[in-house]
Amino acid sequence: MVDRYRYWLHDAIVADLDTRRHPLHVVIENLQHDFNIGSVVRTANAFNVAEVHVVGRRRWNRRGAMVTDRYLHVRHHPDVADLTAWAAAEGVPLVGIENGPGSVPIETATLPRTVALVLGQEGPGLSPDLLAACGATLSISQFGSTRSINVGAAAAIAMHAWVREHMEGTA
């Protein structure tokens, strides 16, 4: 599968991926020009998500994406209100990934098949406005001394949790 697209043209690759995209969206807040956005985008490509949504600043460091953003649909939302309007119009629930009070462990949660997993900035996490827009908040269980894990790692864990629930046994 890794070399499937080796000699394909870009537009043909995107068209083929579009026939198999999952109803999984990933949202990342970009308030501080976080370089981890590229890592989240690269992982989103690996899971063939429907779209990546960047909320806040339009510009982000694409180096970490390693050109994978060219094969995804990346949508910019200038603010939380624009994201929530899109989610309401499309019927896509927003589920925050945040290790704060009231969060339910992702290991015991049920994720909707169609969903937008919402991630905050490295360090501060989800902004209060974006946290309030989420219908549920899930945490990733941690057992060491660090306050949180890298947002790129958190995104990968959350996307994989969705895959385990909705794609198990499929190629």
Automatic annotation (TrEMBL):
It comes from the Bacteria. One of its GO terms (molecular function) is methyltransferase activity. InterPro entries: Alpha/beta_knot_MTases, rRNA_Methyltransferase, SpoU_MeTrfase, tRNA_m1G_MTases_N. It holds the Pfam family SpoU_methylase. One of its GO terms (biological process) is methylation. The keyword Ribonucleoprotein does not apply. This is rRNA methyltransferase. It comes from Aeromicrobium alkaliterrae.
